[in-house]
Design brief:
- This protein is of the alpha/beta class.
- The protein has eleven helices and seven strands.
- It folds into two domains: 138 residues, Rossmann fold; 89 residues, ProC C-terminal domain-like fold.
- Helix content is 50%, strand content 13%.
- The strands form two sheets. Strands 3-4-5-6-7 form a five-stranded mixed β-sheet.
- Helix 7 packs across helix 8.
- The longest helix is centred in the C-terminal third of the chain and has 21 residues.
- Pathway: Amino-acid biosynthesis; L-proline biosynthesis; L-proline from L-glutamate 5-semialdehyde: step 1/1.
- Its EC number is 1.5.1.2.
């Protein structure tokens, strides 16, 4: 996620991004997109905003080494790590965010805790995509919906692509058509005032092709399977959170 943030912010103006990592290979990956790279964690003390983008079990170790001052903003991206856990271990102002990898292309969906969020953090999130502000107790749900959601979407795109290939399309052609169709559908949901059900109705002409396909989906357990996938991801997020409550 850290790399996705760096790549996304590189597409905007107004941010001087310093990438900090002990792994020099990781720094090499983001070097073309960062103003500076360093292995010195002390460099974080000079920043207005610091983003922790590590696996949950690494958060306590990073916080032990991170000497931030009052007035700085610390944004955490780690799944299951509560804002309170981090807040108790730093003098900085803490904001918890659950983004996704589409930050790299500035198409991110993110959830941010209502408590602690600032206009500066809102500006960063707005620059990288869409975001919603939620209470801390809904962050596990958000983790499942938008944090894990891209994998679920990739799975569905692959299924539509494979159906196209089975019908005779070239795999590359089928992938472009499937992926762009999902992208366009998502943009329509975000920009159109109609509900998802109303949009489905708008696409489904009586006795047309789409309604035939939708009848198959309506008669299947596809929606239940998707809900089960989200529920499983949410459960795992809550399990992780149990180790980092404060």
């Amino acid at each position: 996620m850290g790399g996705a943030f760096v790549r996304g912010l590189a597409r905007t103006d107004g941010y001087h991004v310093t990438a900090i990592d002990l792994d020099e290979d990781a720094l090499a990956d983001v070097e073309p997109f960062a103003a500076e790279t360093t292995t010195d964690i002390a460099a974080a003390r000079d920043a207005d905003a610091v983003v922790i983008a590590v696996k949950p079990d690494a958060v306590p170790h990073v916080l032990d080494d991170l000497d931030l001052r009052a007035g700085q903003t610390l944004v955490t991206l780690a799944a299951g790590v509560s804002r309170g856990f981090v807040d108790a271990r730093t003098d900085a102002d803490v904001v918890r965010v659950m983004p996704n990898l589409a930050a790299a292309s500035r198409d991110m969906a993110a959830a941010v805790t209502e408590e602690g969020v600032t206009d500066d953090v809102r500006d960063i999130l707005d620059a990288l995509g869409e975001y919603v502000e939620v209470s801390e107790d809904l962050m596990d749900t958000a983790t499942a919906v938008n944090g894990s959601g891209p994998a679920f979407a990739f799975y569905l795109i692959e299924a539509v692509k494979d159906a196209g290939v089975d019908g005779g399309l070239d795999p590359e052609q089928a992938e472009v058509l499937a992926a762009q169709t999902f992208k366009g559908a998502a943009e329509t949901v975000l920009r159109d005032d109609r509900s998802v059900d109303e949009l489905i109705d708008a696409v489904c002409s009586p006795n047309g092709t789409t309604i035939e396909g939708m009848e198959v989906l309506w008669d299947s357990d596809a929606d239940a399977a998707v809900r089960a996938a989200v529920d499983a991801a949410e459960k795992r997020s809550r399990e992780l959170a149990g180790d980092y409550d404060e």
